[in-house]
Write a structure and sequence with these properties.
Length: 180
């Protein structure tokens, strides 16, 4: 049975849109996901599920959160092989090796239209770089996300698809948790 990861956008452990990770694990188990594990406190869930079930996991988890917590997060699901492939196709690989907390991958919830690559690339300025490759947008924020003038919502708008981003260091932790 393949391992996969659900990446939830906009969940917090305190304040608005709270979702304790214990609740997320419980929701995952309740909808039939096996061996659910959360990584960090920011909506990263690894689990096992039959391949035929993978296409429905994002909607099922979003619905469970909506029912039990009163908000519906964007949920993006990738198999661990897809996560590894996303890391392998990173056009900013050298920067990711030297500064894994400032290089991110935004996992899109669907396919971006062909015209989106130009719009995403046009966001690049002031040393920041953005590139759309397949269902992922790669983001290089050398000065940090907090100092950028390009918000994630602008990247999503350019891509034409909602998504959620994780830095390379977090993705390494997600893969290590599933492999361990």
């Amino acid at each position: 049975m393949p391992w996969a990861c659900a990446l939830l956008r906009g969940v917090n452990v305190g304040g608005r849109n709270t979702l304790p990770m214990a609740d997320l694990r419980r929701f995952a188990a309740d909808v039939g996901l096996r061996d659910p594990r959360t990584i960090l406190q920011s909506g990263n869930l690894v689990f096992q599920a039959p391949a035929r079930q993978m296409a429905k996991v994002a909607g099922t988890l979003a619905h469970a959160v909506s029912i039990h917590r009163g908000f519906s997060p964007t949920v993006v699901v990738r198999t661990l092989d897809e996560l590894r492939a996303a890391l392998a196709h990173n056009p900013f690989h050298a920067r990711a090796l030297s500064d894994p907390s400032h290089v991110l991958v935004m996992f899109l919830a669907g396919e971006a239209p062909p015209s989106a690559a130009g719009r995403v690339g046009a966001l690049s300025a002031a040393g920041e770089r953005f590139a759309l490759v397949g269902r992922e947008v790669y983001l290089d924020y050398p000065q940090g996300i907090g100092r950028s003038r390009v918000a994630f919502t602008a990247v999503e708008s350019a891509a034409g698809v909602a998504g959620t981003a994780r830095n390379i260091a977090t993705l390494a932790r997600i893969l290590a948790a599933a492999d361990g």
